[in-house]
Hints:
By secondary structure, this protein is mainly α. It contains 19 helices and no strands. One of its GO terms (biological process) is dGTP catabolic process.
Amino acid sequence: MPLNPRPMSLAAYACDPAHSRGRRHPEPTAPTRTEFQRDRDRIVHSTAFRRLVYKTQVFLNHEGDLFRTRLTHSLEVAQLARSIARPLGLNEDLVEAVALAHDLGHTPFGHAGQDALDDCMATHGGFEHNLQSLRVVDQLEERYPAFDGLNLSFETREGILKHCSRANAQRLEAQEPGGVGRRFLDRTQPSLEAQLCNLADEIAYNAHDIDDGVRSGLLTLEQLEQVSLFDRFRREALAAHPQLQGRRLLYESIRLMLSAQVYDVIDATALALRRHAPASADAARLLRPVLCFGEAMRQESQALKTFLLRNLYRHPQVMATTGRAKTVVRELFAAYMADPAQLQAGFASRGDTPRAVADYIAGMTDRFAAREHERLTGRRLLP
């Protein structure tokens, strides 16, 4: 059996695992899996990946069994990204690995927890969840005898680091010259597979936040008629099935919307690839972002994001819950800083106490954070 067989129908501009920039700690190749398949498998078996099932997407974990979590969101991103990758000739295994790992560094309580932790770390280097995802796979996972982290390939790590401040990019560059921080200094792009995961992330959360918003009762189908992207497919669903209503109408409308967005990205990106004709993955990195919606779909997608921001993410009920979640994170940080012995032993023994506290809190699930807060403060802010 050949070592690291090249994926079928891989385009010249795709990332070929046979030409990977490698791992920070060299390892022998696997007999039956490519480098990116190995990355995906390591991510799936990691502790941080399992924790995502109890981390908030929009609604806190205790608010309902059927709302999306960071884990189900990551799975949906992976499915959408693979659906787009294949017809474009991109590497499906790489997009799956990046999609499954992109939220590993997210705090409990979603963006509320992230914002609170960033405030707490303002005088200690700040907190960026994308950078934290990289810390998880580079340092914080403890699974192997020879190195910290998961020792993923450069291409997967590059895709995980979606955003990065210049200051943090400079720190990364000092630690790893020419590594994953370099592109933020040179203002070049990540691989096309990484660009695809960024777009699939947006498609996924727009769609499933509609679903979760209606399920929660905070959004109604009548409100969603204001959104042209959704209403177009609601009307299309009713034209095909005039008796459709309720959840079946919602699901069919979302299904049609997702399909249209996937096909739009494929068509718009294929056109851009024909125009620029990058001869290699590195040549694609030197272009402006290539993975894209068509202009009409981009505008409709942006209008949907604006609608969700105003009507769901800033809904008074969501804001009240996230306000309590921010208090939990801030008070946890203060309690651990005041008494680092309350941290687990592996964190308490580190020299950089603020970063150790941030790492510890960021790794918590919603319910563990709520329990720890009650243990340390004697107050219960969240069920």
